[in-house]
Amino acid sequence: MRVSSPLFFMRNTTSMMEQQASLSDKNLHLSSTKRVINGSDDPVAIATIQRLKQDLSVGEQYIKNGETAKSSNGLSDTALSQSTHIIQRVRELMVSGSNGTMNEGNREAIAIELAGLREELMGVANTKDGNNQYIYGGYEVDVAPFQKNEFGEVVYHGDNGEREYRIGTGVLVQGNDSGAKIFMDIPEGNGTFVSELGAGNMGGGVVSAGHVVDKDAARDFLDQDYTISINTAEEGPEYSVYGVKEQAVKGNAKVTISSVDLEAGGINSVNPNVNSTMGIQFTETSPGSKQFNVAINGTSASATFDANNADPQLLNINGITLEVDGLPADGDNYGLTKFIAPTPYEDEQAIAFNGIKTQIKGDVENLDSFTLRQSEEKDIFASIQTAIDALRMPGTDKTTLAKQNTAFDMSLLQIDGALDKVSNVQSAVGARLRSIDNQYESTLDFNLTIQTTLSSLEDLDMAAAISEYQQKHSMLEVSQQTFVQLQKLSLFNHM
């Protein structure tokens, strides 16, 4: 076979280029310290390597998410600690303010400090993070969640949104708490009832919050308000217990018994027997008028209830005086039930009915009343303001002191509820921080395992690679030198 010079030149050139390409590839692997860069390097290992890299990337994202969640919860933990200190100081001042020996100047000084603490607590509730976002606004992070309205009341402008961060496979951690849950949605009183004094009370009696002592007996009776009505008989004061319960109600009026005069004419027509019920009916005088005739057992009050007036109104029906507040609807019906007939009153005696127990302390007067209202929800700022208002009540007579003491007692229960709420949320935040730390360590261990496996699959054996590189480099040099020498060969050189 005859080998022409062009063919010889082409074959040698191709061979050296292939060797150079191989050497370049080896150099690339050496510079990257990777054994597998392209799929052709190891078709079996490349799929596993890509999956491991993806898992490693996900793990790194989990760590970043955890850092964000930890920062958010850490800031909340600090704010909650500040809130606890403020609320504890509020409680101390309220206990001091309930001391009957304090003069008007002392009470005013406490009221001023309480007002300052209320502002300070509002500032903590409007805490911002490093991104200038409010941490207690839910998803509404750009608007101050706690703001005062034109009446000085604190209104929540956030929502109930709670952000979650994925910090591990199947592991979500909460990054924030709604400010409404912490500062606004706090049960009133003891969580079951709120004690209130009748607006027309003349005595110095106070009533404790009603406690459930028999859950089975009370189960069907916790959905109504109770009034303990005082009447003076020849033998001394007597008390009766009435309940008011919504039966068919579309409006939002609040109906309670202000007083019961057992000596009034026609009282028997509106005063039910023990454990029997009479209806309280609302009938609108004309559509859209917001004027209502109010009747008990078909007997109407002499005056109508005017819902255009925003203030609570008293309506007397044959000796039973109702206090109505809010906007009723035409046809609303409430049930009036007597649970305890007139019973001799003794100071500090226990009053029990329907599995519920309470106590009245102090001297009482005829037509005094004490209400156990169903507990609703109230914000901590309003509770502090209630205590401030109580401190600034004018007068030092026994009735004023009774109203002050009742307001303080209910506010203290509310403050205790707020402390429990803050403490529970802070405990939850602490648990999240522990979970984040634990998951962080777990993710680091997982990533380390992946990196070890990944290294075994794709990392280059540098000693072997360098030796092979040098070998191929030497072979290329020999080939190049041989090619140069062979190019010089010619028959003319032997003539």
Structural overview:
The chain is α+β, with helices and mostly antiparallel strands. 43% of the residues lie in helices and 23% in strands. It is built from eight helices and 22 strands. The strands form six sheets. Strands 6, 9, 10, 12, 13, 14, 15, 18 and 21 form a nine-stranded antiparallel β-sheet that branches. Strands 7, 8, 19 and 20 form a four-stranded antiparallel β-sheet that branches. Helix 1 packs antiparallel against helix 8, helix 2 runs antiparallel to helix 3 and helix 2 packs antiparallel against helix 7. The longest helix is centred in the C-terminal third of the chain and has 61 residues. The radius of gyration is 41 Å and the shape is elongated.
> Portion of residues in helices?
40-55%
Radius of gyration: 41 Å
- State the order of secondary-structure elements, H for helix, E for strand: HHHEEEEHEEEEHEEEEEEEEEEEEEEHHH
Kindly estimate the percentage of residues that lie in beta strands according to DSSP: 15-25%
Average pLDDT works out at 85
Count of extended strands? 22
Shape: elongated
Secondary structure category: alpha+beta
| Major beta sheet summary | 9 strands, antiparallel
